[in-house]
């Protein structure tokens, strides 16, 4: 039930620290003991990540981590594109789906099996077709997600996938065991970082809301793993508000999309505090953009007048800007509520898309 929450999305956003805690407690023990219990697959030389929408974004975060920590290359493919996309022979397929019933994902699963790929599934539904048919299953333990917009399942997929990554790298020796154990212990801090992000977002986002409601289009920017979060923020905003949102790698802006930016254009930055991000922010700021910076470093923004910063805890830096997703979800939801949208049931969309 909703309890005191105005909608399921609000409830599911607030549940994220608890979901993270449950998942980390469930899996980190087995990882610390050096083995992924039901995982007898060899360490892959390449990974193919498959999913749709938010699940694909979670998969991209996980694969990026595998590449950064273990130097294992990957390709991320939309499930609907897999039939016409070549895959690397012998690649391990990591297939993510909250529902485990998405038609595009199940078709992709057939294609992957047909090409001889072993499949690790990351799903929130143990009884789903995906869970039944994959070679190994990692459960998300997020509890039922009612809102059509995926929130807590994204966090659960990223953390579940992170446990798979650490387990693989620890077992294979690609990351030395003691370091893998330190990384697992770092994960214990994630629930607090997510709770902190909820508090910081609630305090600061109302200050930008009025400016955001007046705009008709939005630009999201990020760098490195932050780019994936920018994509997720733009997806959430489109889905809930029915307004246009673009997401770009910050450095690509000057190669075209900068032409969109004018006085008052909202630019939402997943801010890594780097000098290059600072330069991008200065560039859009000079054109009168309304900047909202989401990040923990805070170095880019204060020097540039008075853009808004949602300051995040960055203690688990190697994981990428996971806590920024909380701010991005809250921006999308608050804006949708201010516009009178039904945030739990956006138009034209279904929770589980069972047609191709
Ligand atoms: O159940 P799945 O994770 O396979 O669903 C995939 C997408 O349809 C889903 O993530 C969609 O993008 C979300 N509604 C976005 O919030």
Automatic annotation (TrEMBL):
Residues 35-174, 208-346 form the SIS domain. Its EC number is 2.6.1.16. It is an enzyme of class 2 (transferase). It catalyses: D-fructose 6-phosphate + L-glutamine = D-glucosamine 6-phosphate + L-glutamate. One of its GO terms (molecular function) is glutamine-fructose-6-phosphate transaminase (isomerizing) activity. Signal peptide: none annotated. Keywords: Aminotransferase, Glutamine amidotransferase, Repeat, Transferase. GO terms for biological process: fructose 6-phosphate metabolic process; protein N-linked glycosylation; UDP-N-acetylglucosamine metabolic process. This is Glutamine--fructose-6-phosphate aminotransferase [isomerizing]. It comes from Aeromicrobium piscarium.
């Amino acid at each position: 039930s909703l309890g005191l929450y105005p909608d399921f999305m609000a409830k599911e956003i607030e549940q994220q620290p608890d979901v993270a805690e449950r998942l980390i407690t469930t899996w980190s023990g087995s990882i610390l003991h050096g083995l992924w219990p039901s995982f007898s697959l060899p360490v892959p030389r390449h990974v193919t990540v498959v999913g749709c929408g938010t699940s694909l974004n979670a998969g991209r975060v996980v694969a990026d981590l595998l590449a950064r920590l273990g130097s294992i290359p990957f390709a991320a493919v939309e499930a609907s594109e897999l039939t016409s996309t070549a895959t690397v022979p012998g690649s391990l397929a990591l297939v993510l789906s909250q529902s485990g019933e998405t038609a595009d994902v199940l078709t992709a699963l057939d294609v992957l099996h047909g090409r001889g790929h072993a499949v690790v599934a990351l799903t929130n539904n143990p009884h789903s077709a995906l869970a039944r048919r994959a070679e190994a299953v990692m459960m998300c333990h997020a509890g039922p997600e009612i809102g059509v917009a995926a929130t807590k399942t994204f966090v659960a997929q990223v953390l579940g996938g992170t446990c798979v990554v650490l387990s693989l790298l620890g077992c294979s020796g690609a990351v030395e065991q003691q370091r893998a154990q330190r990384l697992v212990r770092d994960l214990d801090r994630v629930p607090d970082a997510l709770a902190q992000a909820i508090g910081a977002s609630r305090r600061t986002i109302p200050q930008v809301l009025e400016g955001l409601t007046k705009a008709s289009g939005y630009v999201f920017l990020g760098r490195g793993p932050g780019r994936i979060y920018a994509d997720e923020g733009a997806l959430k905003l489109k889905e809930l508000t029915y307004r246009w949102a673009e997401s770009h790698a910050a450095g690509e802006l000057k190669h075209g999309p900068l032409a969109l930016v004018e006085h008052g254009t909202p630019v939402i930055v997943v801010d890594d505090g780097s000098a290059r991000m600072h330069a991008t922010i200065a560039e859009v700021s000079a054109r009168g953009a309304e900047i909202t910076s989401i990040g923990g470093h805070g170095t880019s923004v204060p020097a540039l007048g008075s853009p808004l910063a949602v300051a995040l805890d960055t203690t688990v830096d190697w994981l990428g800007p996971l806590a920024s997703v909380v701010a991005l979800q809250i921006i999308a939801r608050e804006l949708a509520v201010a516009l009178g949208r039904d945030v739990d049931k956006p138009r034209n969309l279904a929770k589980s898309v069972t047609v191709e």
